[in-house]
Write the structure tokens for this entry.
Amino acid sequence: MEKKKKDKKILGIILFIIGLSISLSFGYIIIMIMVLLKPVYVLYNLPFLLLPFLIGIILLIYGIYSIKERKNKAILPILRGIFILLIFLYILLSFILLRFSLCNL
């Protein structure tokens, strides 16, 4: 039983670190693109940058809740569902926008 709790805490720490790195890197890229480039470029590329940023935030929150072992256990399945939804939206958006952008060449 003790090993299972230790494994969950290690997984939570790893997810926290991954979520922190993803959210910080994509947040920085979003800010730099908004400051330095044209609004048209920002609107075209924002979904490709915003969804990974949100995925990183969800991983960050999931890692925190996994580490602290809250009494409210309903949060973790909700966060998993949101994470899966964001991954699905990112794949769908990538497929749709890439297909339409290749048609315009």
Helices lie at 2-36, 39-68, 75-103. The CA atoms of residues 74 and 80 lie 10 Å apart. The chain has three helices and no strands. The mean pLDDT is 81.
